[in-house]
Amino acid sequence: MTLKIYGIPESTCTSRVLTVLAEKGVTDYEFPPMGKGDMKAPEHLARQPFGKIPAIDDDGFVLCESRAICKYLAKKYANQGTKLIPDDGDVKGYGIFEQACSYEMSYFNPPAESICFEKLFKQFHGKGPADEQLVTQYKSKLEDTLKVYDGILAKQAYLAGDEVSLADLFHLPYGHLAKEVGFQDLYDPYPNVKRWFESLEARESWKTVPSIIALFARMGQAQEQAAK
Ligand SMILES: N[C@@H](CCC(=O)N[C@@H](CS)C(=O)NCC(=O)O)C(=O)O
Fold it and tell me: Among its keywords, does the record have Transferase (predicted)?
């Protein structure tokens, strides 16, 4: 049975998984179409109890949470494509890797995702305009993180050492979108972060991921047409 990805290719968390599949050279997977309301349907709640995307079904093995899925895929396809995760016996390397993953989850993703919520998702879901005061606060928090990252990345090419890993790739969806929603120069004051992030955005795997901004533009046009 083929690996099934339950998600929307353009969604930030699904794109995290797609990037890893591309890094690993995995192309044999299916994207069962998901319609409005499908995320909260009992069959999807059995895969993702919080009613979110993505989730996978790999020949009956069901898993959710994009970062957990990425780690599973990196181990399952350990012998192909980019390495992305330390070898099983490399205990110290694994600790350093998990430390970098935790930086992303704790100090980068919350402010970056919150900026994207205020500047894009909130408006798209009709929840009003961005609260610019909040945006300023989130941006300042993100900048605190970028300052620390710049110091780390002055000494090594990537967050877990000199080789790219999942910990770096995890930053792509919201790190890229935060730029696109109005902060194109976000990384400019931090030369090591800028070099690092540009190198991630330049990866062929990331170039395969469809744009959420383009999806929203298409959906917006469809909504406008329907309202006419
Ligand atoms: N921590 C989860 C977050 C999942 C998540 O929030 N997914 C979003 C799409 S990026 C979603 O399902 N949004 C729809 C909703 O909240 O109803 C993961 O990484 O998979």
Answer: yes
Tell me the C-alpha to C-alpha distance, in Å, between residue 222 and each of 36, 121, 138, 226: 14, 17, 31, 6
- b vs e for 63-98, b when ≥16 Cβ sit within 10 Å of the residue's Cβ? bbebbebbbbbbeebeeebbbbbbeeeeeebeebbe
- pLDDT tens, residue by residue, 147-198: 999 999 999 999 999 999 999 999 999 999 999 999 999 999 999 999 999 9
Closest C-alpha residue for ligand 1 atom 17: 52
Contact by Cβ (8 Å): 85, 75 = yes
Q: Which of 15, 47, 53, 166 to mutate to test the pocket of ligand 1 (most atoms within 8 A of CB)?
A: 53
- How far is it, in rounded angstroms, from Cα 45 to Cα 58? 16
Atom 6 in ligand 1: residue holding the nearest Cα: 52
**φ, ψ of residue 84 in degrees (nearest 5):** 70, -20
- In the chain, DSSP finds a helix count (H) and a strand count (E) of 12, 4
Domains of the chain, first to last = 3-76 (3.40.30.10), 91-207 (1.20.1050.10)
How many CB atoms are closer than 10 A to CB 215?
14
CA atoms of 123 and 155, how far apart (whole Å)? 40
